[in-house]
Amino acid sequence: MDRQEAIEFLLEHYEQPRHRGELADPDVTMPGGNPGCGDVVTIYLKVDAANDAIQDLAFVGEGCTISQAAASILLEQMQGQALAAIEALDFNWMIDELGREVVQSRPRCATLALGTLKAAIKKYRNDQIRAELGENAPT
Ligand code: FES
Ligand code: FES
């Protein structure tokens, strides 16, 4: 992807985001944000427990083009993926996926969605452990 293709890719996802909206009955709702600018992405996750994989996912958010396009690009690719595969992804992967040349100067914008998705999976794991131990989730 050259620089121009990367810009068009981002703009296209920003203007027509995939997986945007709320899920009716999510296993996890995880808000994420960049304190520096106030931009937000909230991720909703439904897990296929038998396969330890994503059953469905969605986001709502408000913020700069890169942060919102990244959420759309990430969630489109992660539909149906194993949770372990997502846990193994790093921020460098995300930056390459979006077009390093364009987003490398804006790493926090580029990685807000991936960081939030990883936090959502972490919460799902913790909730599972609590349920197995018979504990209530903290309020
Ligand atoms: Fe805030 Fe991009 S400027 S996430
Ligand atoms: Fe503010 Fe990217 S988080 S510029």
Mean pLDDT: 96
Adjacency order of strands in the biggest sheet? 1-2-3
CATH topology: Sufe protein. Chain: A
The structure class reads: alpha+beta
How many strands in all?
3
Bound molecules: FE2/S2 (inorganic) cluster
Fraction of residues in β-strands: 15-25%
Q: Unreliable segments (pLDDT under 50, ≥5 consecutive)?
A: none
The topology string of helices and strands comes to: HEEEHHHHH
User: Roughly how much helix do the residues carry, as a percent range?
Assistant: 40-55%
Measured between the Cα atoms of the first and last residue, the distance is: 45 Å
When the domains are counted, the total is: 1
Q: Outline the biggest β-sheet.
A: 3 strands, antiparallel
Determine Rg (CA atoms, Å). Answer: 15 Å
Q: CATH architecture, please?
A: Alpha-Beta Complex
User: What is the count of helical runs?
Assistant: 6
Shape: elongated
- Tell me the name of the CATH class: Alpha Beta
Provide a descriptive summary of the structure in words:
The protein has helices at residues 3-15, 65-78, 83-87, 91-98, 100-103, 107-132; strands spanning 28-33, 40-48, 53-62. It is an alpha+beta fold and 139 residues long. Helix 1 (3-15) crosses helix 2. The longest helix has 26 residues, at 107-132. The N and C termini lie far apart (45 Å). The structure holds FE2/S2 (inorganic) cluster (2 copies). The site of one FE2/S2 (inorganic) cluster has 6 residues, from helix 6. Pfam families: NifU_N.
